[in-house]
Design goal:
The protein is an all-alpha fold. The protein is built from eight helices and no strands. Pfam families: ABC_membrane.
Length: 281
Amino acid sequence: MTHSSAMEKPAAGSSKSSVKDNQSQHKDIQSHSTFKSFLIPFIRRLYFVYIGIARLGCTYIYSSLLTYVAYHLTRNIRYKYLRAALSQETGYFDQGTGGSISTQATSNGKLIHSGISEKLGIFIQAIATFIAAFIIAFVSHWKLTLIICCIVPALIAVGGGLSFVDAGYETNILKVNAQSASYAENILSGIRAVHAFSLRPRITHKYGQYLQSVFKIGMKKNPIYGLMFGSEYFIIYAGMGLAFWQGIHMLARGNIPDIGTVFTYVRPSLSFSNFGRTGNL
């Protein structure tokens, strides 16, 4: 009897130790799963941080390169423009356009520099965002993406038509500025005669007429900008409203698995804000 009881005691002790080991292993598994569930969202947030850092670096690189290219390209254009202007016959300068050469070289050079260094990068970034957003939307749910495609022709029609009208006004402003610069340069070249004959009031009045005409043309652009941006953002937000309305109905019918798909689909609508601004560059 004593021998059998002695044999039972180690067996009971070993069973208790195995239970404790199982409990400790279960606690380790739970702690590991808890740590993993905490770590995965943190890693996903780090992905966005890394993407933001990469975007910042890429933006700095392409902005620096485009600025460098724009500077050298503008310098070469001004040099060739000045060389071509100085190669003209004498009768060309008798037409009263000689003074506008410096103005056109400066103003048009600034426009070219601004278009290459700033607006070209924004245009490429907007197009890339637009294409990437549509690819993601088509992968998520192609039916919803096809619905929002109706925004594209509306934006192109509004932005393209009003930008064409705005370009006409901008051309007229540049012409009047060139005429005013030519007039001012001719007056300054004969400033002694102006003082001798007391022509300052007449000359300032004439120059003020140039400035007033530029102001009137510029004021005509304000309604165009208001109509352009108002129409574009109305189309964009109308598309977002259509996306939410149709997405909620599809979610209720079970055609969409979750609400996140609707927000993924709305992302192309937000990309239209950048895409629409490219028509105004």
